[in-house]
Write a structure and sequence with these properties.
Mean pLDDT: 86
Number of domains: 4
Largest sheet: 7 strands, mixed
Strand content: 5-15%
CATH superfamily of the largest domain: Glycerol-3-phosphate (1)-acyltransferase
Distance between the termini: 43 Å
CATH architecture of the largest domain: 3-Layer(aba) Sandwich
Order of helices and strands: HEEHEHHEEEEEEEHEHEHEEHHHHHHHHH
Number of helices: 16
Low-confidence stretches: none
Strand order of the largest sheet: 1-14-13-2-12-3-4
Structural class: alpha/beta
Helix content: 40-55%
Oligomer: single chain
Shape: globular
Length: 539
C-alpha cells in the first residue's frame, strides 16, 4: 500500500480532538522525562509495552507535540491501514504502513515432526505436506500450536529440501517430557506458516524520513498485547537505526526509549505514566559492522537490539505473569505509609523496584512466606468485598462511632452532589456507552481469535471505546439538536401538541422568539458537548 503523506494542519487538528478524548477517557496521564526528547534532528521513539493498540501512538503523538513540538510518524500495520476509518485518519497523520508476517499466518496442510531431535534438531519432516507450495519460502516462519496462554513456539525456515523436508535456521526450544508438544514433535503435530515479507520499500521510506530530520515512532514488539511482560523485540528497530546511520553517519540520530505504564488500560477513567529514558547511543563500530553485511551485520543488529531492550526494561514494569504483578501492587500498597498519597510516577518506580527485588529473591524462604501472607490477605479482602485502604477504617478502637457516622453522612452528600453533575451527561451519553461496550467486546473477541500472543485481548478495548465515542457522539448530539430545534419550530408555529403539553416542555418558555433557529441550533449543540464533557470529567 502506498504511503499517504502527513498533512500538518490535519495532524494538529487531530491532536487537538484526540486530546479532548484522552482527557475524558483517562483520569490522569503523567509524562516523565519528556525533556530528553530532542527538539530537532532525526529521532526514533521506541515504545513498549504495546498494551493499548492505537491509544499508545495517539498518547505519544500528543506528548511529543506538547512537550517537544514534534510531529511524529508512527509505524502502523498495513492491515490497519486497510480499515476505512482508521486508515484514512492514520494516513493524514503521516503513518508508515508495515506489512507484518503475523497478519498473513495460515494453517498448513499435513503434520510435521522432528526425525532426530537430539542430533539434528533443525531438520523437519512432514506427513501429507508440500513444502514446495507457494505458502512456504526461505525466510518464512513455521508456527507450532499454542499451548495454554504461552506464546506459540516459532522458527524461521532456512532451506526447503523437498515436499516433505525442510531445515530451520534455529531449532525449536526444548520442551519438558510432560509438555504436550514433547511427544507431538516426535509423532506429528499440526502447524501454521507465515510468509517472508520483503520490507525494503518500508525501510527506504523510514530512512528518507529520518535523514530529513523527522521523528519516527515504533513499537518493537511488533503488535499490541495484554501480557504483563515485554514480548521479544523485533529486529526492525535496530535495522532502521543502523541503516539510517549507514546512509548518513552525521545525521545525529537519537533513539529514545519510552515506557507505556498503564493502570487498567481497558477501563474508563484509568491512569497512565509515559516515561522517557536516557537516549540509546549507537557506536560507530556497530554501523561499520552493519555495512559489512553477513555475520557482522547480524551481530551488530543483535547487540543494538539488546541495548534497546535493556533501555526499555529501565522504564517499564515487567512481571512474569499477572499474578506476580497483582502481588507486587498489593505489596506496594501495604508498604505505603498510612494517609499518604504517592505521586503516580513514584507508584511506578516503587512497583518497578519491587518487581526487580522479587525476581531476584523469589526463592528466598522469607520472600516465599511473605508472598503467601500477602496472597492470603488479598483473598480475605476479596471475600469481604473491600479494598485494602478501607481496612484502617474498620478499626473501631482508634476511631469513635460518631466519626464514622459523620463520614458516612458526608460521603452520601458528596455522592448526591456528584450525581447531580453527572446524571445529565449519563442520560445524554448512555447510547454511546452501550454501543462502545458492545463493539469493543466484539473487537476484543476478534483480536483474541486472530492472535497468538494475546491473553484476553484487552489491549484493543480502550482503543475501540474511544473510536466509537468519537464517531457516535457527534452524530448523537446532531440528532438531539435536530429534534429539539424541530420541536421549537413547531411550537413557534402554535402547534396543537405544544398548546396541550405542560409549560415546562414548551421550548418557548426558555428560548425567546427573537433568537433565530440556526443560532439556537449552534448553541444547543455546543451545550450538549459542554454538559457531557463536564459530567464525564466530574465522574
Amino acid at each position: 500500500m502506498a504511503r499517504r503523506y502527513m498533512i500538518p494542519w490535519l495532524y494538529d487538528l487531530g491532536i487537538w480532538i484526540f486530546t479532548l478524548c484522552l482527557d475524558i477517557f483517562f483520569r490522569e496521564v503523567y509524562s516523565r522525562g519528556a525533556w530528553r526528547i530532542p527538539r530537532r534532528g532525526p529521532v526514533i521513539i521506541v515504545a513498549a509495552p504495546h498494551a493499548n493498540q492505537f491509544v499508545d501512538s495517539i498518547l505519544l503523538m500528543r506528548i511529543l507535540k506538547h512537550a517537544a513540538n514534534r510531529r511524529s510518524s508512527f509505524l502502523i500495520a498495513e492491515k490497519s491501514m486497510r480499515e476505512p476509518y482508521i486508515g484514512t485518519m492514520a494516513g493524514c497523520m503521516g503513518a508508515l504502513p508495515v506489512v507484518r508476517a503475523q497478519d498473513n499466518v495460515k494453517p498448513a496442510e499435513g503434520k510435521i515432526y522432528l526425525p532426530d531431535p537430539d542430533n539434528d534438531p533443525t531438520l523437519v519432516r512432514g506427513k501429507g505436506t508440500d513444502f514446495t507450495n507457494k505458502l512456504f519460502m526461505e525466510g518464512g516462519t513455521i508456527i507450532l500450536p499454542r499451548v495454554g496462554k504461552t506464546s506459540p513456539e516459532q522458527q524461521a525456515i532456512a532451506q526447503i529440501i523437498g515436499p516433505e523436508e525442510l531445515r530451520l535456521r534455529k531449532p525449536f526450544k526444548q520442551f519438558d517430557q510432560d509438555h504436550p508438544l514433547y511427544d507431538a514433535l516426535r509423532t506429528g503435530t499440526t502447524f501454521k506458516v507465515a510468509p517472508h515479507i520483503d520490507q525494503r520499500q518500508m525501510f527506504d521510506a523510514v530512512y528518507s524520513e529520518l535523514i530529513a530530520g523527522g521523528c519516527i515512532g515504533i513499537f518493537p514488539e511488533g503488535g499490541s498485547h495484554d501480557r504483563p511482560s515485554l514480548l521479544p523485540l523485533k529486529a526492525g528497530v535496530a535495522i532502521i537505526a543502523l541503516g539510517a546511520l549507514a546512509q548518513d553517519p552525521n545525521c545525529g540520530l537519537s533513539i529514545i526509549p519510552c515506557g507505556m505504564n498503564y493502570f487498567h488500560p481497558n477501563k474508563f477513567r484509568s491512569r497512565a505514566v509515559v516515561e522517557f529514558g536516557n537516549p540509546v547511543h549507537v557506536h560507530p563500530d556497530q554501523v561499520e559492522a552493519f555495512k559489512a553485511g553477513g555475520t557482522s551485520k547480524r551481530n551488530a543488529v543483535g547487540s543494538l537490539l539488546e541495548t534497546i531492550n535493556e533501555a526499555l526494561t529501565a522504564v517499564t514494569q515487567q512481571a512474569p505473569d499477572h499474578e506476580t504483578l497483582m502481588l507486587v501492587q498489593a505489596t506496594r500498597r501495604l508498604y505505603r505509609p498510612l494517609r499518604m498519597k504517592l505521586p503516580l510516577p513514584i507508584v511506578i518506580e516503587v512497583n518497578r523496584r519491587l518487581l526487580k527485588g522479587y525476581t531476584q529473591f523469589k526463592d528466598d524462604p522469607k520472600v516465599i512466606q511473605l508472598k503467601k501472607a500477602i496472597s492470603d490477605y488479598n483473598r480475605r479482602l476479596r471475600a469481604l468485598g473491600i479494598r485494602d485502604h478501607q481496612v484502617e477504617w474498620g478499626d473501631v478502637k482508634h476511631r469513635p462511632w460518631w466519626i464514622v457516622f459523620c463520614t458516612l453522612l458526608y460521603r452520601v452528600g458528596e455522592l448526591l452532589t456528584l450525581a447531580v453533575g453527572t446524571l445529565p451527561s449519563v442520560a445524554l451519553f448512555w447510547p454511546v456507552f452501550v454501543t462502545a461496550k458492545v463493539i469493543s467486546v466484539k473487537k476484543q473477541r476478534a483480536a483474541l481469535a486472530g492472535s497468538v500472543v494475546k491473553l484476553e485481548g484487552r489491549d484493543v478495548v480502550g482503543t475501540w471505546k474511544i473510536l466509537v465515542a468519537m464517531g457516535l457522539a457527534p452524530a448523537l448530539y446532531t440528532w438531539y439538536t435536530v429534534v429539539v430545534t424541530t420541536w421549537l419550530h413547531y411550537c413557534r408555529n402554535d402547534g396543537h401538541y405544544c398548546a396541550v403539553s405542560p409549560w415546562w416542555t414548551n421550548p418557548r418558555t426558555y428560548v425567546p422568539d427573537s433568537i433565530p433557529l440556526w443560532l439556537f441550533s449552534v448553541f444547543f449543540f455546543g451545550l450538549m458537548i459542554s454538559v457531557s464533557f463536564a459530567g464525564l470529567r466530574i465522574g
